[in-house]
What does this fold into?
Amino acid sequence: MITVLVADDEPLITAGINTVLQSAGDIDVLATVTDGRAAVAETVRRRPDVVLLDITMPGLDGLGALAELHTRAPQVKAVMLTSFGTEPNVLRALEQGAAGFVLKHCAPDELIRAVRAAHHGDAYLSPEVTRLVLGLVTPDGHLRRHAAATRLAVLSPRETEIAGLVAKGLSNAEIGRRVHMSEPTIKTYVSRVLTKLDCANRVEVALLVRDSQ
It folds into this structure.
């Protein structure tokens, strides 16, 4: 079973999330909390596999909780819950190592996929969230593209292909089927890509690939 802790200050949202996750069959919600401070305390105490963190919560928000969990429970994967209008927070959370993002109005199966991906060491970035991030166009966009392309140039053709598929949000198993390789082989390739690009997780690889385009 994949154990999950849910942190969100909206009771209806929390109830819906619990219902969706418990219906998956392989996910167990250990606890629900309503603020970041409680999320950190319960995560340290219960050690869930995955924490779902709402970005905007009273007291310590999701970003603050994410930063503390990085130090106090680094093995726990954090998937951020977000809404439209929080794009700058999305970027900040990515920089702090969030394992994934889903929008609160996402389809039930998308939430389940995000939790499963995080648990298996993959990352899930909702397509809508990806568009939000990519929509933050800055005047130095051409410089970002050049910098990203320079970093990606260290990859071999096969590694470049794998990085591109990671950027599409595919899991190792899905990538393996796409390129006709075993999942363990893909896992080795992804690890090599992370090392060569000096990326902490798959989300960073995805953003780097997108910056280069």
About this structure: The mean pLDDT is 86. The chain has two domains: 2-134, 141-211. The radius of gyration is 17 Å. The first helix runs from residue 11 to 22.
